[in-house]
Structures are given as structure tokens and as C-alpha cells.
């Protein structure tokens, strides 16, 4: 597994500025390059707000717990089981997931996970409606950080066609 238990000391500043891509040594460094502390703080605030609005529940999600939740989500995308609850079941139990957080807490965070404040969304059909509203801040930040990477001398652009039968309101 590629997750290090003890990070090596590096002189990389994560808050305020993005590190130079040459200093990226681990997948976690790459993740932090694009998903900043500002984005994570916003997700914590919006998830807590969503829980309060929907169920009047004080979720008390912290930055550290959000990081663990996202790590569990990533692990689950690599090792897929037929049902989420199976990661915690006796006999099948997957320790890297089950030891990180309880099943009920994970399901609770998953159900209230939110990136934006829905009350600010302009309804469909009105002037100023944004089809990407729910992910706009994440998208814009991610895109700005991509622009900070210096282009390489030799680049390759590849396009792959993926069959898709659904509907999408925006296309390249």
C-alpha cells in the first residue's frame, strides 16, 4: 500500500501557496497540491451545516476526521465490496477501513457530505443559473492550481472515447 505511516520531513508550504510540482514525492503530496486546506475547511463547514439543516444534528465534523473519511472513500474505491457495510462485518472486515472510523459514523458523514451551500443556488431556468454550482468552487480552485504547473517541453494529449448513454447538460 502506498500510504506512509511516518511522513518524511519536507520543506513544502501547503497553506497559502501551492508547492512546486517537482517537490511532490507521494500521492498525498499530489492530493494536497489540488485539494487545499481551504477546500477541506469549506467541506467541513458545509457538511456540518447540511446536517444541521436536514436533521437538526450537530455532526461536529473536524478537518482531521474529514481527511480520514476521504482516505476511507479512496480505499473503498480501490478495494470494492458489494455493500459498504461489509467493510466492518466480521469475517470480511477490512482493517484499514474499519479501524479508521466506525461504520455508523462513516454512513452518517457520507449521507451529510456537502461541498456548497444549496440555499445560494439560483434555480434552473432563471438568469445566472450555473449547472456546475454544486462543485463550482472546487472546480475553479482545482483549475487554478493546474494552471500553476509549468508545461513540459514534450507533451502528449490523448483522447479516449467512452461510451455514455446518459444525458449531460455541458460538453467540451
TrEMBL record:
Residues annotated as domain PiggyBac transposable element-derived protein: 26-172
Organism, as annotated: Artemia franciscana
Top-rank lineage group of the source organism: Eukaryota
InterPro entries (UniProt xref): PGBD
Protein name: PiggyBac transposable element-derived protein domain-containing protein
